[in-house]
Specification:
2 domains, globular, binds zinc ion
Length: 532
């Protein structure tokens, strides 16, 4: 029952039965909404687990301790289970389909209770309108947003390949300011994407200054994550230095064989910046493949002006040959992992039969040898017929683990709200958190359970400046996950991604269960959170 309904019922009873008032008061004092008994509590700060009961009242954690004798409307016995703060996913694109799929089941099934949308430079716009729409819909988890640089630039300059004029810059600053006033927690860039790729550092600094003024942070999908990675990290840190705001590096990785191992250098750069006194954090998804639109393999100049323009270039023999050179480069040395077989089509609405097939297979189906050149032709034809997304197996486990262990790195999914069964999306949208807890914590012992939970809870909460979530403590909102640390594991795979994880038993959002004994309830207790 919602708080509002509960309150109005109480007021109604008070009107007809004044005597009930006193009973209700005493009742309110003694009866809790929930007691979670006998669990191993991991509070999210990184402190060791301890045995305790948790009391929940009116959506918040009201008591932690021995609650054996306390009456509660509902008691959950968590013996043998871990009780932790609900996971906060700082890096998602889940806002895109949240109005159509407000249950966001692929996230709540993992124990995620708060998501951050608007990443990689792309956000709803205007943010204020969008947040109002979400508020008018019931959602299952809490939503926060960043404002996207690409979105703002597109509003002002379209998809033009040039630097901003002083007037345009001022206009963009105004849009960022409005977004911050509307409740954005910061600004994201997608400098690899269009039109962010056409901006210079000065533009991002100028916009970041506005974000900093409001106490927000700068989150970046950097200009390059393969060749050019080190310069891109330097640029990200410089933006923070010059604009005077915290920097957050999104989905950190080293793309392409020639760059493998460079996480040693990038993490050192982060450490040095922190040593200077900067506030820097990083997020990462626990997989060795990335996922994004197929145009990531195209040279940025060829994407100027939007779809019609791209098609015109693909029809022009000279320009097409030039685009091909760029794509071959990317297949050989960057996102393509050196081999067209490592590029798998994840969604392609023009011909869904191609979903799950790799670019080498599709090239062969067309009667050609799967060389990088022929694969580039295949890719251009696929894009010409209709855009799609891919999965790129271009990372190495050694970097994944090194990045994961760094104390400033939080776990995050970079996933989206998924329509169950549709296309072949990256499994990260279903499996990120259980995969970390099962594969990297329990099986490989890369991190302690407490440290990993910290990277899922208080670390992202701190980045966002959320003071009432991310830690299990009296007075905090009761966003809680109860899981079996001996069993929790992801089940989503590259070939069968639409599988919910195992071992996540209960998930509470603002004190109401959205997952109850591994079943989805009918509750939608999520809220829009605005930056203040
Ligand atoms: Zn991104």
């Amino acid at each position: 029952m919602s708080l509002l309904k509960r309150k109005s019922r109480f007021l109604f009873l008070l009107l007809i039965f004044p005597g009930l008032f006193f009973m209700s008061i005493s009742c309110q004092e003694s009866e809790l909404d929930f007691v979670i008994k006998n669990g191993s509590v991991i509070d999210g700060t990184g402190s060791p687990a301890f045995q305790a009961d948790l009391g929940i009242k009116d959506g918040r954690i009201s008591e932690i301790g021995d609650l054996e004798t306390r009456a509660a409307a509902r008691i959950i016995d968590a013996r043998g289970l871990t009780v932790a703060p609900g996971f906060i996913d700082l890096h998602t694109h889940a806002e895109r389909k949240i109005l159509q799929l407000p249950s966001v089941e692929n996230y709540i099934r993992q124990g995620v209770t708060t998501i951050v949308g608007g990443n990689c430079g792309g956000s709803p716009y205007p943010i204020g309108d969008f947040l109002q729409k979400v508020e008018a819909t019931d959602i299952a988890l809490n939503l926060t947003l960043l404002v996207g640089h690409n979105t703002v630039r597109r509003e002002v300059m379209g998809r033009e390949n040039r630097y901003a004029t002083a007037e345009e810059l001022q206009e963009m600053q105004g849009l960022v300011e409005q977004a911050m006033q509307d409740g954005a927690f910061g600004m994201s860039t997608g400098l690899k994407y269009i039109p962010g790729a056409y901006s210079n550092t000065e533009e991002v600094v100028a916009l970041s200054k506005v974000v900093g003024k409001y106490g927000g942070f700068y989150a970046t999908h950097m200009r390059e994550e393969g060749i050019g990675l080190l310069d891109a990290v330097e640029e990200a840190l410089n933006i923070g230095r010059q604009a005077g705001l915290p920097v957050h590096i999104s989905h950190h990785k080293a793309v392409g064989k020639s760059m493998w191992g460079n996480s040693v250098k990038t993490l050192k750069m982060v450490d040095e910046a922190v040593g200077e006194g900067m506030d820097v954090t990083v997020d990462q998804y626990p997989y060795t493949a990335t996922s994004t639109g197929l145009t990531v393999l195209f040279p940025a100049w060829s994407l100027e002006g939007g779809e019609e323009k791209i098609k015109e270039r693909l029809e022009d023999a000279t320009l097409r040959a030039k685009i091909k050179v760029g794509i071959v480069q990317n297949i050989l040395y960057d996102r393509g992992g050196g081999d067209p077989a490592t590029i798998v089509i994840s969604s392609y609405s023009t011909d869904p039969a191609l979903e799950g097939k790799n670019l080498a297979e599709i090239t062969e189906m067309r009667g050609n040898e799967p060389t990088p050149e022929n694969a580039a032709e295949t890719l251009m034809d696929l894009h010409y017929a209709g855009g799609g997304r891919g999965i790129y197996h271009c990372l190495v486990e050694e970097d994944v683990i090194r990045i994961m262990k760094h104390p400033l790195v939080m776990h995050a999914s970079d996933g989206a709200t998924i329509e169950f069964g549709k296309a072949k999306p990256h499994p990260r949208s279903y499996g990120t958190y259980p995969r970390v807890l099962g594969r990297y914590v329990r099986e490989q012992k890369i991190l302690s359970l407490e440290e990993s939970v910290r990277k899922m809870t208080s670390l992202p909460a701190k980045r966002l400046g959320l003071k009432d979530r991310g830690v299990l403590k009296k007075g905090m909102w009761a966003d809680i996950v109860i899981f079996d640390s001996g069993k929790v594991i992801d089940r989503a795979t590259w070939t069968e991604p639409h599988q919910y994880p195992e071992g996540v038993l209960f998930v509470l959002v603002n004190g109401e269960p959205v997952i109850d004994n591994e079943e989805r309830t009918a509750m939608y207790p999520g809220r829009v959170l605005r930056h203040r």
